[in-house]
Design brief:
- By secondary structure, the protein is an alpha+beta fold.
- The chain has 2 domains: 85 residues; 124 residues, Sandwich (Immunoglobulin-like).
- It is 33% helix and 31% strand.
- The protein has 3 helices and 13 strands.
- It has a 5-stranded antiparallel β-sheet with strand order 6-3-9-1-13, with no helix packed on it. Strands 2, 4, 5, 7 and 8 form a 5-stranded antiparallel β-sheet that branches.
- The radius of gyration is 31 Å and the shape is elongated.
- The N terminus is likely disordered.
Length: 218
């Protein structure tokens, strides 16, 4: 796939269109000006100040259009470089720290870390719409813990592949809330370049490149 060509073809230059319009208007202006000069009254010649000002205005507009074209080229180059970098991540491992994970073939895994030992702790898994689909007791000891989910909801039904979020509701002995750090890993199987920002695909889960916490080799 030629990422640079795809990026260039996807963007239409507004500056180029404006320049063509300006050129057409300028040609019309020169035609009218020439006609007026040819047919002016020799005894009462035209005031040159007016069309001189118009020429200056055309020049200023052209300079602005050229500046816009340079800016468009810079933006296109940046997008191309970003897309190329995103494609280079194919097959690598992506770490997420927002609690999300991709359920693939009935499997999803998270790691959560408790900064202190909890008196009570529960795991809550929600779907992409925020609906709770599974709850279970969580490990309460201080430190890192791994939770493997088989993709089944509270009734034992297998949930469809997609994005799910794990949260840990932990309470300390003093009844205070304990916040936990949650992460998950997944292999980047595809890169979606159709949007304004490249998206890294882990199964059916789309992760915007800007939200990728860490990417490493397999």
């Amino acid at each position: 796939m030629d990422v640079t060509s795809a990026t260039s073809a996807a963007s239409t230059s507004q500056a180029t269109t404006a320049q063509k319009t300006l050129a057409s208007s300028f040609d019309t202006f020169l035609t009218l000006l020439t006609s007026q000069l040819k047919n002016q009254d020799p005894m009462s010649p035209m005031d040159s100040n007016q069309f001189t000002q118009q020429l200056v205005q055309f020049s200023q507009v052209e300079q602005q259009i050229n500046s816009n074209k340079s800016l468009e080229s810079l933006i296109a180059l940046t997008k191309s470089q970003t897309a190329t970098a995103a494609v280079s991540y194919l097959g690598k491992k992506l770490t997420l720290i927002d609690g999300t994970a991709s359920l693939i073939d009935g499997k999803a895994q998270w790691t959560y870390t408790l900064p202190n030992t909890a008196a009570t702790a529960r795991i809550v898994i929600t779907d992409a719409k925020g609906h709770s689909v599974y709850t279970a007791d969580a490990e309460k000891l201080r430190g890192p813990h791994t939770f493997n989910w088989d993709g089944k909801d509270a009734s034992g039904a297998l949930m469809p592949a997609g994005t799910y979020t794990l949260k840990v509701a932990a309470i300390g002995a003093d009844k205070s809330k304990i916040d936990s750090a949650i992460s998950s890993n997944g292999t980047i199987e595809e890169v979606d370049l159709s949007g304004t920002e490249p998206a890294l695909m882990i199964g059916t889960m789309r992760v915007p490149l800007s939200k990728a916490a860490h990417i490493s080799g397999q």
